[in-house]
Amino acid sequence: MRLFVALTPPAESLAELDRAVAPLRQDWPQLRWAAPDRWHVTLAFLGDVPEEKLTGLNERLGRAAGRHRPMRLRMGAGGAFPSAAKARVLCVHIGGPAEDLTGLRRLAGSVAAGARRAGAPPPDEGRRYRPHVTLARSREPGNLSVLVRALSGFAGSAWIADQIHLIRSQTGPQPRYQTIGTWQLRPPPR
After folding, report:
1. Does some domain include residue 88?
2. Other residues' Cβ atoms within 10 Å of the Cβ of residue 186
3. Does some domain include residue 189?
4. Inside any domain, residue 190
5. Average pLDDT over residues 153-165
6. pLDDT > 90: what percent of the chain?
């Protein structure tokens, strides 16, 4: 099964972003726009994972989550990968206090290490982690500078990321996501 581990912003934050993105969609029908219910912050893409690895993966992800504190994050300015002029992906970057962004990078590293130990190594492990929410994809590289500029001033409300999700991705004309595991991050001391 095709899996990834992610944070899911709350509905209010997704609605804010949707209000900013909605006016852009009609002028860019050539892009494959992701529906707001599929927006997430990927911590680790795992690819195809054999079902027999799932028990160990669940255990390792639970351990990884328990080592990290919740983070205050927000969705921010628009961006594109690999660059705005030759983009295949339109996104918004994730922002927040420096300490929380460092915590987010460490969490992503722990999740990847746990997946590797469970026998489900992320194919992109070792790459620099760049937290973002994917809004749209392009089949061919295109100049999305206009869209990146249109989203340059976006700054969503802060939210607390306090759990991680293991998500099954079913590809096809209408991709579907199914959450198959959720783990709380370590609560802050009282």
Report:
1. yes
2. 12
3. no
4. no
5. 97
6. 90
Structure tokens at 138: 């392009």
Q: Which domain holds residue 146?
A: 2-184
Q: Which amino acid is at 20?
A: A
Residues present in the chain in total = 190
Structure-token pair, residue 45: 């893409």
Is the distance from CB of 96 to CB of 158 less than 8 angstroms? yes
Residue pair 115/62 in contact by the 8 Å Cβ criterion: no
Per-residue pLDDT band at 101 (split at 50, 70, 90): very high
20-50: per-residue pLDDT in tens?
A: 999 999 999 999 999 999 999 999 999 999 9
Which residues make Cβ contacts (< 8 Å) with residue 150, sequence separation at least 6? 24, 78
Residues 6+ apart with CB under 8 A from 171: 2
Which tokens in the block code for residue 186? 């370590």
Inter-residue contact 94 to 76 (CB < 8 Å)? yes
pTM for the model:
0.92
If one counts the domains in the chain, the total is 1
Residue 73 lies in a domain: yes
| CATH number, domain with residue 121 | 3.90.1140.10
Residue 124, pLDDT score:
81
Q: Residue 3's closest CA among 177, 190, 183, 186?
A: 177
